[in-house]
Every structure is written in C-alpha cells, then in structure tokens.
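Record type: monomer structure entry
Structure origin: computed from sequence
Chain ID: A
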Amino acid sequence: MRPEETARAAGAAMYAGDLASQRLGIEITEIGPGRATAAMRVTETMINGHDVAHGGYVFLLADTAFAFACNSYGANTLAAGAEISFVEPARFGDELVAVAVERVRYGKSGLYDVTVRRSPGGQVVAEFRGRSRTVAGSLLEPHTDDGATT
C-alpha cells in the first residue's frame, strides 16, 4: 500500500471506533502521512460561563487532529503528552479547523504541532504540541474482542 493509501485506511479504521469525535460532529477532512485536518462547529452545549467555547473542546479537537496524524502510518500510536496555548476565544457557531503536522519521528516517539483556526485560513484560536509513542499492533490488522490481533 502506498503511504497516502495507508493514511486513509488508518484514518477510516480509527474514525470507525472514535465515538467521541463522531458524537461531537468532528470530521476528518484531510489525512496523509504525518498530517491530518479535523473540523468541528462550536455548539451551544460547548459554551462555558464566560460565553466562549470551553477550552476542553478546543483541546479535544486539536488532540483529535494530532491522533489521526500520528496514526497515519498504520501503527497504533498514543499520546505521550500534550500542551496547548489558547490565543483567541472560540464562540458559539464558530467552525474550528485543526491542522496537525508532524515535526519529527524518532524511534517510537514523535512530535506534532497543531494549529486551531476559526474556519479554514481564519484567525488562530490555539496552538497545540503533542508527543506520541508507538505501541504494539496495527490499525490495519483485524482485532479480537480481547484486543489481540488475529
């Protein structure tokens, strides 16, 4: 399989089991080796007491783009850590777009930067950096109910 095909297959496999993203209306709009774009509209249930989007939802969107980018090679890869800087508030109705880009992979580890913007090409809402760790298994192999590959 070519790298772009692997990324699309890995993304489809991940999204099929990602109920959190599905229920929040997050869409993966682009995926390729070491990169992914995720989009989400801010709903009224995401608004906090300051009348802006709760930072946890902005983090979740960035983390989702990060997860799809670092899993785009087909190997099971988890977050080892992440941090976010909030630049501007997101508001009810905003379409947020998170673009994740791999900075480096070394051994089983990787670094990814994610920029969250208000609409494609819009104002920056947040900057996120994620650290990944590849673990055993593949997204592209069938699994049994106990988590083992078949």
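Annotation 1: The longest helix spans residues 55-70.
Annotation 2: Residues 146-150 have pLDDT under 50 and may be disordered.
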